[in-house]
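Readers outside the structure-tokenisation community will struggle with the description of the input data as it stands. Showing the layout once, in full, would remove most of the difficulty. For illustration, here is how one protein appears when written out as sequence plus structure tokens:
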Amino acid sequence: MDSDAEKLVRAKGYPYSAPDYSYIFYRGRALKLGRMDLPPDMARRKPVLAYGSNAAPDQLRRKFPKLGDDEAIPVLRTVLPGFDVVYSARFARYGAITAMLAPSPGTTLQTFTTFLTPEQLDLMHVSERRGPMDHTGYEYGRLRSLTAMVEAVGIRKDLFAYQSEAPALVLDGALVAFAEVTAKNRTLPAKPHGEVLATVAGLLSPGEGIDAFLLALIADPERRRSRSAALADLGRAVDLPGFTKDKIKPPRSQRRAPKR
């Protein structure tokens, strides 16, 4: 079980550190593309945007702790015009305020795309969807009509993505971009995650202190739900043009065999 100090590091450290290059996640390590080649089964993999913590090796280690020696995940640098990464109006179960996509004309997002096998996508769904009672769910779907440049792959007109079910957080009348995420010609105000956490804690629970606030959120799902609901009252719905939801099927291990 994590100590309180470890829990606070995880909550405050979101979206965690990602390399500034394309890499292959293999045996828990980020191997720079070139040191290790793309897997031969790229055609069967789903290209899923990793605009938040899913581009960080630390987060991939948490989500894929049992990848075999014959498994790998390409995490490829991606240039995505017309979007930015903003704060959602909800808390993750580990205390962070999570990211979501927002249209931003004129902005060019510097992000990543993970290429996941069907089995890896099942595991990612489990980590991203959670349940509505946990107030941490993402919708999964396809973004169309893009001009995304994916390193080693080329231009993609469509990519898959997870998008928060919650509204986007609004502070001082505006959506707020993640300062930790690189974007050119950004039009939205950008703030670091720690600063936004402290601001929100002060709004929702004045005088409690950020560490006590976060540890209470992490320990108590009901408190997390109520604080997320209060945060949603500070939010604004985001329409993501070209995004169509895909129905998430149960993991293959839970599916019934067809009747004969």
Remarks:
- The first helix runs from residue 4 to 13.
- Confidence is low (pLDDT under 50) at residues 131-135, 255-260.
- The longest strand covers residues 97-116.
- The chain has one domain: 4-245.
